[in-house]
Amino acid sequence: MEKQHSSGSDSPVLPVVPRKPRVLLAGNPASRQDSVDSPESPSGSHVEWCKQLIAATISSQMSCAGPPDAVTRECRSQDCGEEHGYRCDSCSELPSHPPQVFKRQAPVDEVQLVPGETVKTTVKDVIYICPLTGAVTGTLTVTDYKLYFISLERDDPFVLDVNICAISRLETFSVQSLGENTSGIEIVCKDMRSPRFAYKNEEQSKLEILETLTKYAFPLSNGLPLFTFQYKEKFPEDGWKVYDPVAEYKRMGLPNESWTIRKINSNYEVCDTYPALLVIPKSIEDDEIKRVASFRAKHRIPVLSWVHPETQATIVRCSQPMVGPTDRRCKEDEHYLQTIMDANAQSHKLTIFDARQNTVADNHKAKDGGYENENFYPNMELNFLEIPNIHVIRESLRKLKEVVYPTIDEQRWHSAIDATHWLEYIRLLLVSAVRIADKVESSKSSVVVHCSDGWDRTAQLTSLSMLMLDSYYRTLRGFQVLLEKEWISFGHKFASRVGHGDENHLNSERSPLFVQFIDCVWQVMRQFPTAFEFNELFLITILDHLYSCLFGTFLYNSEHERVQKEVNSKTVSLWSYINSQPEDFTNPFYVNYENHVLYPLASVRHLELWVGYYVRWNPRMRPQMPVHQNLKELLYLRTELQRKVEELQKEVSASHSISSSSEHAYSPSHGCTPLHTSG
Amino acid sequence: MLTGSKTTFKVRQLVPDMKERMLSHSSFHTRGRDVLGLCCLPGECVLQRAVLVRKKLSVKEGSGWLSGTLFCTHFRVAFVPQDSQRPDDNADPVLLGDHDVALASIDKVVAVGPSRTKLVTPNGSLKFTPEELVLYCRDLRVFCFLFDRLTPDAQAMEITYTIAKTYQPLKPGTLLSFQNSALGSIEMKQFLSNRRRDPNMNWFECSADWEQELERAGATGWRVSSVNDRFEMSTSLPRFTVVPHRVLDTELKKTFAHFNDGRIPRWCWRHPRGSDLLRMASFQNNIYHEKDDIRNLELVLFGGQQMCVIVDLGEEMPSPADIQVAHTRLRTLCLGDISSSVSVPDDKWLSTLESTRWLDYIRCFLRKAAEVACLLRGGHMTVVLQESEDRDMNCVVSSLVQVMCDPHCRTVAGFQSLVQKEWITAGHKFLSRINYHRDCDKEEAPVFLLFLDCVWQLWSQYPTRFQLTEEYLLALHDSVQLPLFSSFLANSQRERCRRSQHLPQSYTPVNGLRELPMGEPEEPVDPPFPPVWDWALQYSSSRRARFTQPVSQAACIPPVLNGNLNTNLERSWHSDGLPGSVFLLSRSSFSNPSNLLPWRSGNSGSYWKSHRRAPSSEGLSGLERLIRACSLSDPSENTTTLHDPFEPLLPLLIGPCVRVWRGCYLRGALHPQAFSHPMSSCSQHPLDQLAFEVQELGEKLAQASVRHPEHQTRQQEPRRLESNLNQNANNGTFLFSSRSSQHQPPASRGSTRPTNLTRAPWTASEPPRSAQRISGKHTFLFGHQQESQSVQRYIPSPSAKYPKHAGNTH
């Protein structure tokens, strides 16, 4: 809600607002330089929106810092240089506003582009149909990256900015109320909003809008490349270097006496949806692997995801065994799992978690899939986690969208949320992940996790339990590694599940499993607010760029495809952007809980709908003031006080050495209060 | 602390010793520390105890288990952690330790055995040795104690029995013995009689208090009338009422008869834009309106304003009975009592929550208050809240409006004054509504708790605009269940005064600081009840420290509402209604029914004839425009106005924004999934830790700067800064206020000088004099640490940069 920010800047708030840029300068001069140079910050607009929320929050806190005076005016004008264009999303309209403030800003009717972005069409006199306040007339611009609407008809510009790749489908509808020649278009987005526009039905503009929108919203269906290949931003950090599998396995203490890193899949010949490097029990021979691969669906053999640093208990992931209706056996597979169990001396059991519902798994058996028969796998214990499939989750989120956008039924809000079952599925995931983590941590037993293909629910479960078990994954970098490893390299089918640039919105392959996972992370984060180095903005940013096609990170279905398309060399990584300005994404109250295992409470009464993400586009929504801003002030005060103490102590000791009065001997060591709260 | 004592050798060694001591120890009646560490109140007897008990800690406390000793006295169930610090024997008695619960708060005692769970009643028997003891409280807390296998079985049984027998059973008459066991001892009476009242808040007990409030609000045209001084006009009204200047007491007397229970329209608050908030009961019908009466009635209703809007709270708002039903349902849902074995399945939790209707009611009150707040923002009118009794809904709405509009009411002192004004003296029937005596079940309704929930909703949407914290609201919420406070133990001010007749009727302001000796105990039937605001009596200083925001916001500027301060702003609304128009606001729309004022509806009134004209429809639409701002509650409206301190905090009322107060209702949600939390038990909550560190640093600075007074250049800066910080202290920063303010001259009250909207670090220098003048404000709440050292403090210079991630070095 850029407007809020702008409104912040004309009111007597300013002493603080300019401080934010300064932080950044102090923190990471290079990166800041970068984003100041380019008028449009390279982030997606949503990130800017979120950041502005935070800025607005800071300013609103400072609202009473003093009456407007000369000083604050100065600050304001300084600040303007660093502010980016107006952007606003929910349809807020501002009442009267001192106009001069607004004029000092960069010209708003000029669309600000990211490097490599080009304007495709601009249409005047388009009407935005705001669900709350009605029609707003303005100019609509479509570029190959975004859709940008600005209205100057009121004192305050109204801006709407949508990533064009986040569009799920375009629907036309008729608008009787706005005159005969008007047609309407509803832009249904993947990120829980659907703005509606209306425009005069003159031949030219109609063609322009719809065609351009369709063309660039679904480039792959129209024979165009994704925008990410045109994106030319340069970042000081290289996000493609964040995940180095060998280094990550080394961090876990691998290879060790029972596990090795094998290059058996280096040309993706064993399994084309697995990464090139796999961690496999040392004693297993190559041909044995090939036979196991043929027994597992999509050749996704059991490989190590995580190993406990002390107990050597492991989390192993794979796909379902192809036992079929006749209960086929595979000696090599049985031996393989036995070897995995033996690799952990602490336990004589191996627990297999099948994420599916028991009945569904039985059905899969009829279709040549199935699950491990405990008779053939003697020391194994099989558990079904009863998690529904991707179609159920997709439906659930669709219902959730209906509940939150564009209007909310106050009276029925809670039962409507219940009816979507979204929180119920979140709970199931968390409960299951806690079970896995507990098995590994408390029972010291190795676990094998699979669902059908081992790239959806399996990825959710392994990554969630790893997040609970390993504090490294709760850091900013560590979480990136976790995503790169468990989701991206192990072949979660991002392209199919999200449908980047594809117009077939009814494709049943689509499902918001990754969103669901990030929601789970948010829930855990809410229960342990100081255990994560990153903040909510980081999670929202990840989700926004899941759809935006600005970065190459989440594109394509597997490592194999990514190598073929040369994603690493031709596109920018999301982590380049994030790690170039980590200040925005860090939690100031992070306490490193090293070696702590998080067991979140997974009852629905301890879960909450992630209002900050799902409901943020609701026109009635206003950002809540996060208390942590308040706490930041406290941190700031502490640092300042600390500095003063140190200064004074220096001075005291200096004057002591002159006067040499021994009675006031002062121990400088007292000055260094241990900073428990600073990670 | 978390280390389970089960297996440690040391503890095993201790057990026989403890038993011996138990047996030999007979005199429980001594004041001071018990052998096992319970610091008894004077006269408090330990009835039973159990050693090696573990208490389950809430998430806020760091989760996990804390081992120690469990006690049951006549007054409370106390738990003393094993390695707790030896309390200072000379410290003032605190009713409840951090792990204690008063017997009167307990609702249910449940014993959990190896295979079964049983609700323990005073008469019931227990056929198994409990392994776990769960206490469900009326304030929705749940205490869970685990008996170690080394706890002697007899002790586990006995203490369970004792608690079940002694806790406030559901029968009338046991209240007094509870009260006496807490406050009845001679030492305690003496101690209470020496307590000072909080001089920072307004008690609204004498006419000077009301005059001060008038001055604070900048209300002109109003005066304090003592016509009800002896409660002759109305038994439920306070002794003093604020009425328009132009009405003489003799004239005023005649108006009482026109209102239910004599609750005439009374002034509550003036919005800085110049409109006044009033409240009254419903009109008495079938009463003859004399011409003079009508003039007076109109005068009382209109104050000095041209227009009057009557807000009817009777029909739209949930009735007290509705609130009671909703609250009971909510409590059942949230407590999840394990003995009843009726638990709500997880996937129905939200629907069940919705069906309690509690959140609906919350929204209803917030919406009404927001509408009224928007009306008041329009200026130039009186807004009169009307409810048939004027003792429930009016209390909620009028105080909510003030919390929304008046930053002062968002400070602890201001909030307490507000409750004093709109609830306690105004005659909310606390005694019946809370039903301490269990004798008015029909009247029981947690209206006040509903109000606290509404405030919490506002707080959770605008946490930074409040000086008080959730912790404070919780403390107040829990205190309501404790039948020890004069504030809640009466239905009206008259009852309170009668009870304390031997007390001086009013007290004289001495140099701005008023004292009220609680009177000599002349064998009163009841012990002297302290006001609930005496927090030091109830809670340890560490808990009280969390009552205010660690970083003060400017929200708590002493609001100087100089009448029509802002009336020229473009948003102010000029009445286009005719002078003398009265409108009714009901269900978010305005109307002009002819029988709104009973004296105008008849043909008898000649006054009315002269004013009879077509009702002004422009007036209506103008008014509707005013409240549309709130019903839309459009975000932009709010953001531009966030910076005006008197702009109301309009809450968002859409579904996701009215939330269940988890911190309160789900405190006790005990679930098997409560796994160990990473927070190590010995460390405080990070926030407390941080606040503590800041304080410590501040003190270090002070020492350092005191050491070198000869250092000229250094001294300059601290002194200037000190003044800022003291000012900050006035704003309620506990980090700074408590110590430095001790020796300051007492605050002179009634200062109307506008203090800058300050946030300490960025203030330019402020005359030190003014800072000192107001810095004594928190002496009562925080001044118990005796420290006479002058403390000088630092503040970052205005040019200071925001640190890069303050200490976030990874």
TrEMBL record, chain A:
Any GO molecular function: phosphatidylinositol-3,5-bisphosphate 3-phosphatase activity
Q: Where is this region: Disordered?
A: 1-44, 652-679
Q: Which UniProt keywords apply?
A: Cytoplasm, Hydrolase, Lipid metabolism, Membrane
Q: Tell me the organism's taxonomic lineage.
A: Eukaryota, Metazoa, Chordata, Craniata, Vertebrata
Q: Which family does it belong to?
A: Belongs to the protein-tyrosine phosphatase family. Non-receptor class myotubularin subfamily.
Q: Where is the active site?
A: 451 (phosphocysteine intermediate)
Topologically, how does it sit relative to the membrane?
Peripheral membrane protein
Query: Which top-level group of life is the source organism from?
Result: Eukaryota
Q: Does the keyword GTP-binding apply?
A: no
GO biological process: one example: phosphatidylinositol dephosphorylation
Where does the record place the Myotubularin phosphatase domain? 239-614
**Bias (Polar residues):** 1-10, 30-44
Composition skew (Low complexity), residue ranges: 654-670
**EC number(s) of the enzyme?**
3.1.3.95
Q: Can the keyword Nucleotidyltransferase be found in this entry's annotation?
A: no
Q: What is this protein called?
A: phosphatidylinositol-3,5-bisphosphate 3-phosphatase
* Compartments it resides in: Cytoplasm; Endomembrane system
Which source organism does the UniProt entry give?
A: Triplophysa rosa
Q: Which GO terms describe its cellular component?
A: cytoplasm; endomembrane system; membrane
Automatic annotation (TrEMBL), chain B:
Protein family per UniProt: Belongs to the protein-tyrosine phosphatase family. Non-receptor class myotubularin subfamily.
- Give the UniProt entry's GO cellular component terms: cytoplasm; membrane
Q: Which InterPro entries match?
A: Myotubularin, Myotubularin-like_Pase_dom, Prot-tyrosine_phosphatase-like
Q: Which CDD domains match?
A: PTP-MTMR11
| Occurrences of domain Myotubularin phosphatase (ranges) | 204-665
**Pfam families assigned:** Myotub-related (PF06602)
Region described as Disordered: 704-772, 786-810
List all Polar residues biased stretches: 723-758
Q: Which PROSITE patterns match?
A: PPASE_MYOTUBULARIN (PS51339)
One biological process term in Gene Ontology: phosphatidylinositol dephosphorylation
* Protein name according to UniProt: Myotubularin-related protein 11
- On the tree of life, the source organism's domain of life is Eukaryota
The Basic and acidic residues compositionally biased stretches are 707-722
